[in-house]
Design goal:
about 375 residues, five-stranded mixed sheet, three-stranded antiparallel sheet, 14 strands, disordered N terminus
Length: about 375
């Protein structure tokens, strides 16, 4: 997407924001086939904060809490939020750090390392599995699933994506079956004993929540690691500054930096909605029943809000950053995700002397409509 930047022997991947940056100047709302796409920051924010008009019930497959609206969403969101408090996330940090350190220490120095494949995916799988209490011997199946899910999504073939989704549900059901006779000892078994509105969660609801916590997050965390490492390798000044923050253990500043890096190159591209009533937005008329996409990546680069979308300024841009969404469906896992990304960033920076792009292998970006990086070859010094 966009023009290649000539950097000699190591060209950069196409800028994911170039097309959207240009589109902002002509129209913050566009039409792709039978779907409306909201690009502008104001338009995306307005829709995300109006769940009565822009419903999240966009598919037949019930996803908890993502596809729910109103009181039902609120009830299940309370369940999910209980597992993602600051205290519970802090409890997970030592194990997460041990995992991150082992991955970084196991990588070669002065040789090419493929960031997403060798750092992002194993880190995402191991940390999420540890949090949920899933066995280490499941790693191979989960890594394979992440790759297959990404390939199915890239293909656009709904049959393939449905098959991959069903395979993941089978993995979850097997894990649940192994816990039915045991008292809650981990997040998965605790969720199995939980309630919503005073009644026990059904098996389908438990599977859906666990799917939400893992199926999306495994790929997203891996992609975010790729974006962050690519940013470090292409911005020497910021890499030096972040190394100093990592050495000082400044958690808040590091997490702010992570959110800003992800704003510039947002791997969490979009969410779907459906209009429940006629509505005017961005000078366009949307009819009841029309499908709508909230493009977070485009909104995070809106020049009406961010004068120079590529300019890195965590403090100035924090209040307008939409990496984790906004409104009632804002990401419930923000605290956990930021902790995990901060920990892998800290361990990467404190256990290496420098990170360079691989001289002979350029980073490669996924084809549109996906916007994340496919490969990020780097050399750790």
């Amino acid at each position: 997407m966009g023009d290649q930047v000539d950097t000699g022997s190591n060209p950069q991947p196409p800028d994911p924001g170039t097309t959207h940056d240009a589109a902002h100047r002509s129209c913050p709302v566009t039409r792709e086939g039978d779907t409306w796409v909201l690009l502008g920051h104001a338009e995306v924010t307005a829709a995300a904060n109006d769940p009565l008009t822009f419903s999240s019930a966009t598919s037949q497959r019930r996803a908890i809490p993502n596809s729910l609206d109103g009181a039902e969403h609120l009830a299940f969101r309370k369940v999910v939020d209980r597992y993602l408090t600051n205290d519970r996330v802090a409890h997970e940090e030592p194990a997460c750090r041990t995992t991150a350190a082992a991955i970084i220490d196991g990588l070669p120095r002065n040789e090419t390392v493929e960031t997403i494949e060798e750092i992002g995916i194993p880190f995402a799988v191991r940390t999420q599995s540890a949090w949920l209490g899933w066995p280490p011997d499941l790693e191979g199946a989960l890594v394979e699933w992440v790759r297959d899910n990404h390939a199915a999504t890239r293909s656009g073939d709904r049959t393939k994506t449905a098959e991959v989704a069903e395979r993941f549900d089978r993995i979850i059901r097997q894990l649940m079956a192994a816990r039915t006779d045991h008292a809650p000892t981990d997040v998965t078994s605790e969720l199995m004993a939980d309630t919503v509105d005073g009644r026990p969660l059904t098996d389908e609801e438990i599977v859906s929540i666990l799917r939400n916590w893992t199926a999306g997050d495994l790929g997203s965390i891996a992609a975010a690691v790729g974006v962050i490492v690519h940013f470090l390798a292409t911005n020497a000044e910021h890499q030096r500054a972040l190394r100093a923050l990592a050495e000082d253990g400044d958690h808040a500043a590091l997490e702010s930096a992570i959110e800003e890096i992800l704003r510039i190159d947002d791997p969490f591209v979009s969410n779907r909605r459906v209009a429940t009533a006629p509505v005017e937005i961005g000078a366009e008329h949307i009819n009841s029943g029309d499908r709508v996409i909230l493009n977070w990546a485009a909104a995070n680069r809106d020049p009406q809000v961010f004068d120079d979308p590529d300019h890195y300024d965590p403090a100035a841009n924090a209040n307008q950053n939409l990496v984790f969404g906004t409104g009632p469906h804002a990401c419930p896992g923000r605290v956990l995700t930021l902790m995990e990304l901060r920990v892998i960033l800290q361990e990467l920076l404190t256990r290496t002397n420098w990170i360079d792009l691989a001289a002979d292998q350029p980073a490669v970006r996924e084809e549109p409509p996906q916007g994340d990086l496919k490969t990020v070859p780097v050399v750790l010094r």
